[in-house]
Amino acid sequence: MTVHSKAEVVSFEDEPLMLVDSSDTIVGVLDKAACHDGSGKLHRAFSLFIFNSRGELLIQQRARNKRLWPGYWSNSCCSHPRQGEQTSAAARRRLREELGQQAELSFVYKFEYRAEFEDLGTEHELCWVFVGTTDDPPVVNREEVEEIRWVLPDVLDAEMAAEPARFTPWFKLEWSALRQQHAQAMPTIG
């Protein structure tokens, strides 16, 4: 597969993110770096699972310059809505910025998690999970993404079972929930 790419900085340590409580009510604003410092501050985030018409999921290896989980395999795209930005609009924006794709996104569920990465910081997020389908060829933003690949769900299940340490913690949680509780949200092969 030929992968087209670009390099554009689209994520900034000083961008204002929305602090939320466990009910997802906005309680303040804090820059991205501070949200991830120490034990982390609970903030709103989103994760996208993009499938093609063959039922394959697009997964990405995070860029090596990432502060948290660099070089780990993760879901298609994930990020944060910025202050005043609707989560669904932020998800569409980030899909274009990271992968050069457009897709009709369907909200599936949201959940809270916390994961520490060595002594470099913590993700503490109230994460909205979306699923979409597109056959747009990806245009990879090398500032964000090291590699991409399309993988069938059963193959991904086997890889995660065999080598769980290669994948981001949120990806493993979200994929398990999609497979076990939200299978109807995933496209069928066709």
Task: Tell me what you see in this structure.
The protein is an alpha+beta fold and 190 residues long. The chain has one domain: Nucleoside Triphosphate Pyrophosphohydrolase (Alpha-Beta Complex). Helices cover 22% and strands 37% of the residues. It has helices at 32-36, 87-99, 153-162, 169-181; strands spanning 4-6, 16-20, 26-31, 43-51, 57-62, 73-74, 77-79, 104-117, 121-133, 139-141, 145-151. It is globular and about 40 Å long. The model has no long low-confidence stretch (mean pLDDT 91).
Structural class: alpha+beta
Strand content: 35-45%
- Tally of alpha and pi helices: 4
Number of structural units classed as domains: 1
The counted number of beta strands is: 11
User: Helix fraction?
Assistant: 10-25%
> Which stretches are poorly predicted, pLDDT < 50 over at least 5 residues?
none
- Look at the structure and give the mean pLDDT: 91
Please trace the helix and strand order, writing H or E for each element: EEEHEEEEHEEEEHH
CATH architecture: Alpha-Beta Complex
What is the rounded Rg? 16 Å
CATH hierarchy, class: Alpha Beta
CATH superfamily: Nucleoside Triphosphate Pyrophosphohydrolase
Shape: globular
CATH topology: Nucleoside Triphosphate Pyrophosphohydrolase
Q: Main sheet, how many strands, which sense, barrel?
A: 4 strands, mixed
What strand line-up does the widest sheet have? 7-4-9-8
